[in-house]
Design goal:
The complex is a heterodimer of chains A (485) and B (72).
Chain A (H helix, E strand, L loop, with lengths): L13 E2 L9 E9 L4 H12 L4 E7 L4 E7 L6 H7 L6 E3 L21 H20 L14 H13 L1 H18 L8 H4 L1 H24 L7 H22 L8 H8 L15 H8 L6 H13 L2 H31 L1 H29 L25 E2 L2 E9 L2 E3 L2 E5 L4 E7 L8 E3 L8 E2 L6 E5 L5 E7 L5 E7 L1
Helix pairs in contact in A: 3-13, 4-11, 4-12, 5-8, 5-12, 5-13, 7-10, 7-11, 7-12, 8-9, 8-13, 11-12, 12-13
Chain B lengths: L3 E6 L7 H11 L4 E7 L4 E6 L6 H10 L5 E2 L1
Classes of the chains: A alpha+beta (485), B alpha+beta (72).
Chain lengths: 485, 72
């Protein structure tokens, strides 16, 4: 004596096949608040079907309704359901709930929602970030080999809120959702912040260790521009995927585990590192991600030629970046754990991560000398040498002078003769930041790192005419050589 | 009745509903005496009677609900 309905006719629904249909059946539809993913559908269906009087349950996430076929005059009412699912956070009613009262707690199953406002908030933050970078925040603090440790702290503090925020902060933002998801909703904010504390501890200790080695061995850590640029591009691509996931692109949800595993670099995804210590190692490895400030600090640690000073310089710098990075972590933990703000924050963070990833990729394209849209970001107030003015020739060499400062390179556009040796004299100001490392593909074989106020002369011959671009190590500032006959 | 314990790691448990669904589904199998699904660690521990149910059956049930279990 089982109901006559075949399970095959409604494969999506749950049937109670053990029930005796000795009473007329009715179908009731309830509006549900709190369903946010397919698991919720299953959970509600499985719980309800265990009720003796229920024949069929169909929960529809897309419409936020459940349809229940049950015995007439039964106890299946909103108040009964509300009581039954009180612990699970679902609410039931005969009437539709007001829209967007509940927002998904998980972006991978979030439904597309009010995207314009979150987009504008993200756009505002991005504009603020670009303005902050353009106004030359770096001019506020300058460091050199004689700087005291507290100065490196302040230097790091600035870095944590500006150019390093783009790279390291972006990475933190993109993995923080996965970190948060390891903890339950009942865990305290402090508990959920653990991965962020670990990340920063790892970062400080990593910087101290690598700083000491840098002070000791010197050029060991000078990675080729091609390598670091490729590394950042790879990480940025992972960030793009994570950013799109935060925006709730469902088709990408499955990449959460698979994609990063196929990337040997995988720094941006913690699933490569087992266990909860992963953030620690990720933090330590951020030493190798060159943002302008980090390079300056590394150059000075290198110049110190002393493991202890190297460790202190890098450690102090990393300590200084903590407030900025923890602010990113704290806001993400705080906002992710509140269901009302979580989805909104995920969207905003998604846009930010996307922007930062594209920003980083674009900068690295500049470094690699590939076509890009750097004119949107770089300070390109071209201080061009008058067109007719070729540089003076001293002792058979064309002498050009350039200053690298927090505002970029001055001048940043040179006209030179092909086939005649060029003596390129560069002086970095005390606070040059990113501009103190120069990548010139096709002109210089390696990245050129400048110490503050120490003039450096590089000689080269441009044998072919054409335009050669150069940029700072992070690709934020650019310049070019126009080689003529 | 002798019982055994097995643990599945289910990385794609992504929200609070997931452990509940897995727990409910596994408990429907015969010979399951206890299920503990932990979202934080992504681990699902099952105490079961090996004469009545196999880990392969549990695996199948978990997969039917759309999750990818990994035995550890």
């Amino acid at each position: 004596m089982t109901p006559t309905v075949s399970i095959d006719s409604h494969p999506q629904c749950y049937y109670n096949r053990s029930m005796k249909p000795n009473q007329p059946l009715v179908e009731s539809t309830f509006y549900v608040q709190g369903m946010h993913c397919a698991s919720c559908e299953i959970l509600i269906e499985k719980r309800l079907i265990k009720q003796n009087s229920v024949v069929m349950v169909d929960a529809q996430l897309s419409k936020n309704i459940i349809t229940v076929k049950h015995q007439k005059g039964d106890i299946i009412t909103p108040s009964f359901l509300n009581k039954m699912f009180a612990d699970d956070g679902y609410q039931f009613s005969y009437n539709a709930f007001k829209k967007s009262k509940y927002i998904s707690a998980n972006a991978t199953c979030a439904l597309p929602q009010d995207n314009t406002s979150t987009f504008f908030i993200a756009a505002l933050i991005i504009i603020g970030f670009l303005l902050l970078n353009k106004t030359g925040l770096t001019t506020l603090v300058s460091v050199n080999t004689n700087s005291s440790l507290p100065l490196f702290l302040v230097f790091g503090l600035l870095a944590g809120f500006s150019s390093c925020a783009a790279l390291v902060g972006g990475i933190v933002l993109s993995v923080s959702k996965q970190w948060v998801s390891r903890y339950g909703n009942t865990d305290s904010t402090l508990t959920k912040l653990q991965p962020h504390f670990l990340f920063n501890t790892g970062r400080v200790l990593g910087f101290i260790l690598f700083g000491a080695i840098l002070g000791y061995v010197g050029t060991f850590f000078k990675l080729s521009p091609l390598f670091t640029a490729s590394l950042i591009v790879l990480i940025s691509i992972v960030m793009v995927v994570l950013g799109l996931q935060m925006l709730g692109i469902r088709s990408l949800a499955q990449f959460q585990i698979r994609l990063p595993k196929s990337l040997t670099v995988g720094l941006a995804d913690e699933s490569n590192f087992k266990g909860r210590l992963a953030p620690f190692f990720m933090g330590a490895l951020t030493f190798f991600l060159p943002c302008g400030f980090t390079i300056t600090a590394q150059t000075l640690a290198l110049a110190s030629g002393n493991p202890i000073s190297g460790a202190l310089i890098m450690g102090g710098f990393a300590l200084g970046t903590i407030p900025g990075l923890l602010a990113v972590g704290y806001s993400s933990v705080k906002l992710h754990s509140n269901p009302n703000t979580s989805a909104k924050f995920s969207s905003i963070a998604g846009y930010l991560v996307l922007f930062l990833a594209l920003y980083n990729i674009n900068n690295q394209l500049t470094v690699l000398g590939l076509p890009n849209v750097s004119f949107l970001f770089a300070t390109t107030a071209a201080t061009q040498v008058a067109a007719a003015d070729l540089p003076p020739i001293v002792n058979g060499k064309q002498v050009i002078k350039m200053q690298a400062s927090a505002n970029g390179f001055t001048p940043n556009n040179f006209k030179i003769r092909a086939g005649v040796p060029v003596s390129w004299q560069i002086t970095a100001t005390a606070n040059a930041g990113c501009a103190s490392s120069i990548v010139a593909n096709g002109i210089l074989p390696d990245r050129l790192d400048l110490a503050p106020n120490v003039p450096v002369t590089k000689e080269f011959i441009a044998s072919n005419t054409g335009n050669y671009r150069f940029s700072c190590g992070m690709g934020m500032y650019t310049g070019s050589f126009n080689v003529v006959n | 009745m002798s019982t055994q314990t097995t643990t599945f790691t289910i990385p794609d448990m992504h929200c609070e509903s997931c452990p509940k669904v897995i727990k409910i589904s596994l408990e429907e199998l015969p010979g399951i005496s206890a299920v503990n699904a932990d979202l934080a660690t992504k681990n699902v521990t099952v105490i079961y009677d090996p004469s009545k149910v196999t880990t392969a059956q549990m695996s199948t049930v978990i997969k039917e609900n759309g999750y990818t279990p990994q035995t550890s």
